[in-house]
Specification:
Layout lengths: L9 H7 E5 L12 E5 L4 E12 L6 E7 L8 E7 L4 H5 L6 E14 L6 E11 L5 H10 L7 E11 L2 E7 L12 E7 L4 H7 L21 E6 L9 H6 L6 E3 L12 E6 L6
Parallel strand pairs: 9-13
Antiparallel strand pairs: 1-2, 3-8, 4-5, 6-7, 6-8, 9-10, 11-12, 11-13
Length: 275
């Protein structure tokens, strides 16, 4: 799916950007290093790497400082505009983006053996500018590359709206008290594990008549998909073999909602042996 369908306007992005610090080291970042993030869980920060922006005639973008004025240079600076037909626009930079890193590549002639004479070697230099104020971002974009760099390669952070899936969950009538509606409407984020998402939103998964799942141990892992099967990730080989006779049944512990960043409507039956 084209992630650009979840882009948001400049004014919305400007309201959502915030600066955060990780308290401990993890796979993505070091403790104590500031990074930009979204204030709302309904939006996520996407990474776009190595957008090549020519410097010929200027980069063609304007910047806006949302936060700054600190002695340490920490802040939030975003792209507030791009010139139509300009270098930044052609590279895919959008208003609302935040520049996280600038890389330049340089050719270096080094001496080689007499058989090959001079050899050209490409070297790179990088300047991180994520969560920096206006001056720090301008320095990374305009000063750091030097006079000879024909282009800069930008790593960009972009806030996007999380795609959502509207889910209709149907309980067995036998499990519902009189007057209780057996149909529940939910909204799940693309990328969520189906079983975990259902449990987190209060869906009671209890099906003593079913065998326990070999993967998660639950007796209510099995769900029947009445609509929106393509919104779930494809079955693995083991699940596919298990469901040969029930192709519309999924193991909820192995299912991901909104596969490949899709939105749409999903209809499920739970606690199948009680229906």
């Amino acid at each position: 799916a084209d992630a650009n369908r979840y882009n948001i306007p400049l004014d919305e992005a400007a309201d959502l950007w915030t600066c955060a610090v990780s308290e401990s080291n993890n796979a993505d970042r070091r403790a104590g290093v500031p990074y930009v993030d979204s204030k709302s869980k309904d939006y996520f920060v996407d990474d776009l790497e190595s957008l090549e922006v020519s410097r010929s005639g200027g980069l063609g973008m304007e910047l806006l400082e949302l936060a700054g004025g600190r002695d340490d240079g920490i802040g939030i600076t975003i792209v507030s505009g791009v010139i139509e037909g300009g270098n930044a626009e052609r590279a895919g930079v959008l208003p609302g983006d935040s520049i996280a890193r600038v890389t330049v590549y340089e050719r270096d002639e080094t001496g080689a053996s007499s058989f090959s004479g001079l050899a050209e070697e490409t070297k790179s230099r990088t300047r991180d500018c994520e969560a920096r104020d206006f001056d720090g971002t301008i320095d990374a974009l305009a000063v750091f590359p030097g006079d000879d760099a024909a282009a800069v390669y930008l790593d960009v952070k972009r806030i996007r709206r999380w795609p959502k899936v509207a889910v209709t969950v149907e309980y067995p009538a036998s499990q519902c008290a009189e007057g209780f509606d057996p149909v529940v409407q939910l909204e799940l984020f693309a990328g969520e594990n189906l079983q975990r998402a259902l449990l987190n939103r209060g869906i009671a998964l209890d099906d003593p008549g079913n065998p326990r799942c070999d993967f998660c141990g639950s007796n209510a892992c099995y769900v029947s998909v009445g609509k929106g099967k393509s919104l779930l990730n494809p079955m693995g080989k083991t699940e596919e073999k298990l469901m040969e006779r029930n192709p519309n049944v999924r193991l909820s512990c192995k299912a991901t909602v909104g596969y490949n960043m899709q939105e749409g409507d999903l209809r499920l039956k739970v606690n199948l042996s009680q229906h």
